[in-house]
Amino acid sequence: MRAKGVYATEIDVTVPFFDVDSMEVVWHGHYVKYLEVARCALLDELGHNYVRMKETGYAWPIIDLQLRYARPARFGQTLVVRAELVEWRNRLKIHYTLSDAATGERLTRASTIQVAVRLADGEMLLVSPAVFVDDVERHLASSFPRSTGPTP
């Protein structure tokens, strides 16, 4: 069973012509681009986007990507891409759901895992840097003020 995220954001994407093949179906590789747009929106909301990552001295490469296609997305279709924060203390794990905006039908599920790499020496860390954890948990605390907050 898929873990439920503790914080989520959604974006809309209207499938452009240049993302589809001759059958007007989104080419499978373009889904990764839609995930990236949703991930950037989520990281912006959490207060630790890619600019902040670089400023704090870390890169966060994707080390694992999984996609499960249930139904094709098509030219002109508006998709809702939901990105959910699942883990952040040892690695950054995000789950995604791509759905048809008009019907709510799920088209694709995905997940990404990213790890912190120190820019100064290229060393991969086994835990997330404190500055990242602090930014995320500060945002979560402000989003859930009456609870002790979610756990990763």
From TrEMBL:
Chain segments annotated as coiled-coil in the UniProt record: none
InterPro entries: 4-hydroxybenzoyl-CoA_TE, HotDog_dom_sf
Keywords: Hydrolase
UniProt-listed SUPFAM superfamilies: Thioesterase/thiol ester dehydrase-isomerase (SSF54637)
UniProt similarity note: Belongs to the 4-hydroxybenzoyl-CoA thioesterase family.
Record's protein name: Acyl-CoA thioesterase
